[in-house]
Amino acid sequence: MARHDEVGVRVAVVIVTYNSADALGTCLASLPAGLDGVEVTEIVVADNASRDSTCEIAKNFTELPVRVVEIGRNAGYAAGINAGIRALGSYDTVLVINPDVRVRPGAAAKLAEAFSRSNVGIAAPRLENPDGSLQPSLRRPPTVLRAWAEALIGGNRAGRWGTLGELITDPRRYDVPGPAAWATGGVLMLSAEAVRQTGQWDETFLLYGEETDFALRAGRLGLLTWYTPDAVFEHDGGESGTNPMLWALLTVNRTTVVRRHYGFLAWAGYFAAVVVGEGIRALAGRPTAKAALTALLNPSRRRKVLPQ
Question: Which residues form a coiled coil (predicted)?
């Protein structure tokens, strides 16, 4: 499945799906133009036991050959990535995307150019909302100070004050290439070397936090996450901000990442800040915060598996 090769890189694509029939068709339709300029080795849809027509849409797509890997259960995003990568043959890079993503023409080739820099293991694109506005996706390392700032004044506001916030919200940062601690996992390109050295994505995260963990592990091996503004992908965005179950999972996983990568003392301060932040918002009546606070304070209420 070769296309004219302008950048000398072989790209495999892994799309992780779960009941994604409403989005997958437009994602697949964007691939022929989006992958222009690279040699495409394989396109794999790793499906987490969808109950809708997701698999049929993938199997019936005719513009490019698509292979479906059925996981058999809703095992989560990391499990989907791992299953998709295991199914691949030879490649130089893997483009991992959500089904609610559209690849702008030529974006994959521009993203692959990041690997011409030494020590780049993960390439992150510019994400835009369907209306063309910027979707902030870059992060600074999680710290106790940043957690308290986000808890007390909110993540978006903290992100606008120098380097105070974890989420980078200053639009000027998104105009220039450069390294980041990690980036939103909805679209990432991984080098074969990063896959080999860093190993599998941690499936215990289920959803959220797995991309942070992978990027931090890669960073410890000297492999950078590099932001490429010329590579533009359109992303609908998820429901984590409105779905109590998803927000609770995201919030708990934030603290898990800190415990694993920065140790107990950092985790204790970070955890306290997150509890205070969610507590403030729970008192204001926010259902997502109430669910997150319950999961933080009562480990037995934390989700260990996803809905099947």
Answer: none
Q: Does the structure show a pLDDT above 50 at 220?
A: yes
User: 3-class DSSP state for residue 142?
Assistant: coil
User: What is the C-alpha R_g of the chain?
Assistant: 19
> What is the rounded CA–CA span in Å between residue 252 and residue 274?
9
> Are residues 1 and 10 in contact, defined by beta-carbon separation less than 8 angstroms?
no
Backbone angle region of 264, left / alpha / beta, with phi > 0 → left and psi within -120 to 50 → alpha:
alpha
| Exposure of 20 in the CB half-sphere (CA atoms within 13 A) | 27
Predicted local confidence at residue 198, as pLDDT? 98
CA distances from 38 to 92, 179, 209 (A): 11, 23, 30
pLDDT of the residue at 5: 42
Write down the mean pLDDT value for the chain: 94
Nearest to 138 by CA among 103, 107, 177: 177
Rounded to whole angstroms, the Cα distance separating 46 from 77 reads 9
**Rounded distance between C-alpha atoms, residue 105 and residue 4, angstroms:** 14
CA nearest to 140, candidates 155, 127, 125, 120: 155
The pair of three-digit structure tokens given for residue 304, joined into one six-digit string = 């260990």
Q: Could you say which DSSP state residue 42 is in? A: E
Residue written as token pair 């004219």? 4
The band of 158, judged by pLDDT with boundaries at 50, 70 and 90, is confident
What single-letter DSSP state applies at residue 90? S
- The predicted-structure confidence for 5-56, as pLDDT tens digits, reads as follows 444 699 999 999 999 999 999 999 999 999 999 999 999 999 999 999 999 9
Name which of 39, 62, 48 is nearest 112 in CA terms: 39
Question: What pairs with residue 173 in β-bridges?
Answer: none
Whole-angstrom Cα distance, residue 288 to residue 93? 37
Q: Are 2 and 12 in contact (CB under 8 A)?
A: no
